[in-house]
Amino acid sequence: MVRRVAVVGAGISGLAATKCCLEEGLEPTCFERSEDIGGLWRYTEHVEEGRASIYRTVFTNSCKEMMCYPDFPFPEDHPNYMHNARLQQYIRDYAKHFDLLRHIRFKTVVTNIRKRPDFCATGQWEVVTQRDGKEETAVFDAVMICSGHHIYPNLPLDHFPGIEKFKGCYLHSREYKEPEKFRGKRVLVVGLGNSGCDIAVELSTVASQVYLSSRSGSWVLGRICDHGYPWDMVIITRFRTWLDSILPKSVSDWLYVRGMNQLVKHENFGLMPVNRTSRKEPVLNDDLLSRITCGVVLIKPDVKEFRETSVVFQDGTVQDDVDVVVFATGYTYTYSFMEDESIIKSRNNEVTLYKSILPPHLEKPTMAVIGLVQSYGSAIPTADLQCRWTIKVFQGQCTLPPVSKMMDDIDEKMRMKLQWYGSSTTLQTDYITYMDELASAIGAKPNVLKLLVTDPRLALEVFFGPCTPYQFRLTGPGRWSGARRAILTQWDRMLRPTRTRIAPDAPSLFPISAMLGVLFLPLLLLLALLYW
């Protein structure tokens, strides 16, 4: 029986793991190397070893209704997208509300995790920690690794010939904190991801010129979508996911490209993705297009080589007098505290995890990696559901298939990723499909057909409305009594922080609608007559 659980990291995933353990009567001990909770979202003036790092002006890319813990909504007056400091306060409020802090050991570094000699029989682990220079070893029945994947920067200098000759300075985006030190300089940002675009836009307010280099292009979305609503509340719905699943891929691809290119012709800005039908996560940025339009950010192709003071791009163009290069080239994920890292990276040094959580080859399923997945959805509700599923596996209440079946499932998912995202090793997955897969296994997936009979109003909101985290607390283990009300009032909470002035309603479109109805009424009557 699993009783004592070691949780590595007290970020958003580690807090979810600790809370879910407590819900199921387990005894979690959470190890956090720093002096505070929050993980990635805890801003510090300087980069700290072994911790994720963000810049001062980071705002969330997920709306508050889509990114909250599913049984702990944000306060109504909080903005839909918020600064990292406000999110950090929400995380602290969550920990305080569920009394999680007393289960966390701060300033404690996990240095080694290894199987016990009798692991095949007990599934237990030895966890070695260090605090104030003192080492301690403890035995746990299970381990949940919640250390995140934004710690170790990917800086592929081998792919950039001549970088050793470059006389300017270069840094990884992890080291970037604020723009002032780049005032008046010419800056090249390599990488068209969220961080690269944020940094390029921010630098464009102080630098003399910013160049943004992209190898393959990207779709760019703003945080607000149709009629000014949050993009994720409009796009991430069960109806859209269902439509995607029944349409031929060629039709689905056409609709996807048309939707992404509807407001802005990306080719006019040099942003059009090489593989335009790939469902690779788009860039979320409200200002990039305007900065390109104003000429303060110039989009460039991939870097071919560096020279002493200039950069040559793949199209043959040369940019002289470049002072600084910021490599926004992502992160690698490694688990240096694992005595045997092949437990997680079991094939070709790739992460091979069942349901993106469990190492499939363990004799006893008592280790889980939480948060090693990306999607259109937010990390917080994803981690919460991963933890609930994991604990049911630990308790033996969620039966796993044989190893061969788990490996077949992993291979099938990799084939699907190659088809939809252009890479078999990407962490990306479809949010609703993945969440429903986990929820179904523990009885937490909302049954829309049943709701249609018992609660039609809720059923329609669940299916056609945004797939908010509350949906996964309507039923099953960890059911939250406030979930139904939270779903039915989610649009009200979304509007609350923006309707800060009483404004007249927009003119009604009823006359046009009525006219269309009159025009189509004879046609409808004719069709009914023919059918009869």
From TrEMBL:
Listed GO MF terms: flavin adenine dinucleotide binding; N,N-dimethylaniline monooxygenase activity; NADP binding
Residue intervals passing through the bilayer: 509-531
Primary localization: endoplasmic reticulum
Gene3D superfamilies: FAD/NAD(P)-binding domain
UniProtKB keywords: Endoplasmic reticulum, FAD, Flavoprotein, Membrane, Microsome, Monooxygenase, NADP, Oxidoreductase, Transmembrane, Transmembrane helix
Subcellular locations according to the entry: Endoplasmic reticulum membrane; Microsome membrane
GO annotation, cellular component aspect: endoplasmic reticulum membrane
Enzyme class: oxidoreductase
The EC number(s) this enzyme carries: 1.-.-.-
Protein name per the record: Flavin-containing monooxygenase
Organism for this UniProt entry: Anas zonorhyncha (Eastern spot-billed duck)
SUPFAM superfamilies for the chain: FAD/NAD(P)-binding domain (SSF51905)
Membrane topology reported for the UniProt record: Single-pass membrane protein
Cofactors named for this entry: FAD
Short name of any one Pfam family annotated for the protein: FMO-like
Top-level taxon in the UniProt lineage: Eukaryota
Family statement: Belongs to the FMO family.
PANTHER family: DIMETHYLANILINE MONOOXYGENASE (PTHR23023)
Catalysed conversion reaction: N,N-dimethylaniline + NADPH + O2 + H(+) = N,N-dimethylaniline N-oxide + NADP(+) + H2O
